[in-house]
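pinned: reference chain
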Amino acid sequence: MRSRIDWNHGTLPAIGMAVLIAVSHVGTGETRSVVTPTAGELPVPLIAAHPSAAAAAAQQGPAALDYGVYKERVEPVLLRDRGGYGPGLSACVTCHVQSGTPMRLQPLEEDGSGGVYWTDEQSRRNFDVVSALVAPGEPEESRLLMAPLELSAGGSGFHVGGKFWESRDEADWQAMAAWVSAADPRSASAEAAPEVDFEFFRTCVQRIFQDREQVANRMECAACHGSGVRGFAQDLPEGRDFWNEQESRQNFELLSRFIEPGDPLGSRFLTHPLDSHDGGDNYHSGGRRWHSQDDPEWRMLAAWVNGDTPQCVVEDR
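pinned: its structure tokens
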């Protein structure tokens, strides 16, 4: 059975000492919300009165992120229409369906009336991707919640898609926070991301920014990325033809916004200029620098993003 997104479903309120779980009634399709205390929040006498329940909970291990709650309460947020197009206005899926970002969602299905949805299999794949951006039990440490949140409300410094939550009190933020908070921090299994080598960036990667040979009839990276939030190849002072140490570190810091250490295909720096037929984004105003992941330069950069220090294949022009 395919899973339809219910656009009119209410949002999950903030939960104090209880966890909201969805209970589906077989044969009726009816869904109701039941508030159930977690094992860790039961009063001590109640735990003592039910030792078998406590033992069973211990055997099951730490509570992980709940797929059912994700599908019912979190996934609709990703489809939410915010009334416009552009940073802070577009629905999450506008940028995150088949795009080179860490939250690379499945393509949407369309029904006969023009509505969009994900199948259950697609939703489970989305769940795995989204869960990787969450710190179980810790909403404030979860990239999923902090990237789109305004800096003044404690959000992260930058999000390519802009900021669309002005406060943690907003219903969608609360829905996601409740889902994350219900999971036990001990259920996390994330591996440490590799370190990306600054020195290789300074001596090799930056040469790409000035190179036009591979992008015939197009401008080099530095022509568009010389300033602003995407200015990872900042304009050089007159009389200089390359960046000094301090400028290189500033470029590196800005480029880090578009790099996902350990995940080349989740790094916009590698997918935006890559041909869409081989895993790249659908559009890049600067054209396509790489037509295949087999391009030696692309493979070099992928190895660098994975934490390696490969041989530089960029000629010193």
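why pinned: The radius of gyration is 23 Å. The longest strand covers residues 19-24.
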